[in-house]
Amino acid sequence: EVQLLxxxxxxxxxxxSLRLSCAASGFxxxxxxxxxxxxxxxxxxxxxxCVSGNGHTxxxxxxxxxxxxxxxxxxKNIVFLQMASLRAEDSAIxxxxxxxxxxxxxxxxxxxxxxxxxxxx
Amino acid sequence: xxxxxxxPSSLSASVxxxxxxxxxxxxxxxxxLNWYQQTPGKAPKLLIYDASTxxxxxPSRFSGSGSGTDFTLTVSNLQPEDFATYYCQQTFSTPPxxxxxxxxxxxx
Lengths: 121, 108
Hints:
The complex is a heterodimer. Chain A is mainly β. In chain A, about 0% of the residues lie in helices and about 50% in strands. By secondary structure, chain B is mainly β. In chain B, the strands form 2 sheets. A 6-stranded mixed β-sheet of chain B has the order 2-10-9-4-5-6, with no helix packed on it.
């Protein structure tokens, strides 16, 4: 059974940092691109970042590029989202999602339960 | 970046109804178009990928069509568990892979 379990969310101050983790199990981890998608309270879905199965191909949304870093550890089946220079508008539930394909996630077929990030002073 | 729009933004329907949601891309995306369903407090669920391919385990009352810039999601014989918000997402070429703003389907 495919499982994705996010952790690391919480309260951060503006300008601060957080690192989100997503532990994956139940599938061949390095055969799938992974991505992070966020959802601000009461708002729609926003794609944030993705990483290829081998970790070599990475993309970011314009809203987080230069502040967030996605990475993965294929020896431990974990994908990370390092978030820095946090802003109030980064407050959201962050979902980890598995891509159906290896290089970029053409569709996301499994999702974690989400982890809540709140940025406030 | 490719922008996605959806119509309507919300609709009211009854159990047993047939509903159609439209998604439009600001430029052609071939058939790289996905549909997701989200119920309150839950993660999104993939319903359809590549515009018309039903994800494993999704009931056949869900169907998708379209290519290029115009796409539709149809739900036939609406069931109580189908009252949710539906999002389209384009995954053409390279990211960012943008989502539409969502269509909320509630009970009439």
